[in-house]
Each structure stands twice: as structure tokens, then as C-alpha cells.
Amino acid sequence: KQEVTQIPAALSVPEGENLVLNCSFTDSAIYNLQWFRQDPGKGLTSLLLIQSSQREQTSGRLNASLDKSSGRSTLYIAASQPGDSATYLCAVRLSDMRFGAGTRLTVKP
Amino acid sequence: GAVVSQHPSRVICKSGTSVKIECRSLDFQATTMFWYRQFPKQSLMLMATSNEGSKATYEQGVEKDKFLINHASLTLSTLTVTSAHPEDSSFYICSASGTADTEAFFGQGTRLTVV
What we know:
The structure holds two protein chains of two kinds. By secondary structure, chain A is mainly beta. Chain A has strands at about 5, 10-15, 20-25, 30-40, 45-50, 55-60, 60-65, 70-75, 85-95, 95-100, 105-109. In chain A, strands 2, 4, 5, 9, 10 and 11 form a six-stranded mixed β-sheet that branches. In chain A, strands 1-3-8-7-6 form a five-stranded antiparallel β-sheet, with no helix packed on it. In chain A, β9 and β10 (about 95-100) form a beta hairpin. The termini of chain A are far apart. The model of chain A has no long low-confidence stretch (mean pLDDT about 95). Chain B is mainly β. Chain B has strands at about 5, 10-15, 20-25, 30-40, 45-50, 55-60, 65-75, 75-80, 90-95, 105, 110-115. The mean pLDDT of chain B is about 95. The N and C termini of chain B lie far apart (about 35 Å). Helix content of chain B is about 0%, strand content about 50%. Chain B contains no helices and eleven strands. In chain B, the strands form two sheets. In chain B, strands 2, 4, 5, 6, 9, 10 and 11 form a seven-stranded mixed β-sheet that branches. A four-stranded antiparallel β-sheet of chain B has the order 1-3-8-7, with no helix packed on it. Chains A and B meet through β4, β5, β9 and β10 of A and β5, β9 and β10 of B.
């Protein structure tokens, strides 16, 4: 069974910092990996989707990379803002789709 | 992106009753749907994977007779929580995708409270 791990579990940074969130998975035979954002009490907002054949995807201040062979993905957030405060989840897709436990990010003004 | 509609968004039911949650893909055909449960301050736990026209594959520890999943069409899957109890209170989220290697789109979630 695929296992997905996210490090760190929580992160608090001052506004303006660049930061990296990590996601690792045990089975490298994935179709794709998605990064999501979840605000308290809300559903999921999809941020980036990386197909297994891709190395990275970018959207605005977000950049996600994928190293399938080593079972790792990173989400890079540039120039963080208080509005980025949320829980960030990664999910890997094979026949099923499994999530990591998430990283709870707090960006202080 | 594609739209997945999940209803209801909130439901309160009495202990012992059953609750049905619907998940619809509005603008694409969903070959595969996933159902998740999320307890407060925890991540999404996969309950079952459902392929259209087939029986759902349940995760270990998820009672298939309690959480009935039906995926009879390419646009609709339902999760019925039978004989609900307070410990079933949780946030339930569905996801749908066209094929195994395409993006999965998520519903808005259903907050179930059993009193």
C-alpha cells in the first residue's frame, strides 16, 4: 500500500520568506501527484498537478517538483503572504489516490 | 477545471438513521471515484475506490455494509452511511476522474453530524 509522508507537519514563517514543503511516497509507480490547499473547515483547492513524466509545474508563486525515482516532491512557495496560511496536502495517484498528513503553514504579517 | 458537485454540504441526522451523500461529475465522465473521510485536524483517509459498473474496493477497516457505495453511472456515485452513530460524524469528500492517469477533481465535502 502506498504511503505518503509530508514534512514538516507544521511551519511558521514571517511574511516574505521563501519556503519549501516536502512530500515523499513509497511506491514510485505513480500516474501523477497533486498538491492541494485546505483552509480550516473547508474543502480542497487544487494547486498543481504533476504527471509522472514531468519534472515540475509552476503557477504564480508556486513551483512543484517531482522526482519519481526517489519518491519525492517539493512545493516551493515564493515570497510568502499571510493569505498563504493553510494546510497543504500532497496526494499521489495510482489505482487509488492517497494523501499525506499535510503541512500546516502559518505566515505571520 | 472540471466540476464535481457534492450534496448535501451539511447534514445532521439522528443516531440510527441512514444518510445518503451524492457526488456528481457535471461536465465529464467519471470512470473512477474516490470517497474520503476526514476527522478534525487530520488528513483525508481513503475509504473506498469506486469504478463505474463495478463493486467498490474498500480500504481495510472500512465496513462495506455500513458505508454503501454505488457508482451506477459515469456521472454519479453515492455514499450511504447506514445506521449512523455519533462516531460517524466527520467530513466526507468525494473525488472523480476520467481515467486513471488524469487529474482528480474534488467535491466540496459533506459535514455529517450524528446526534
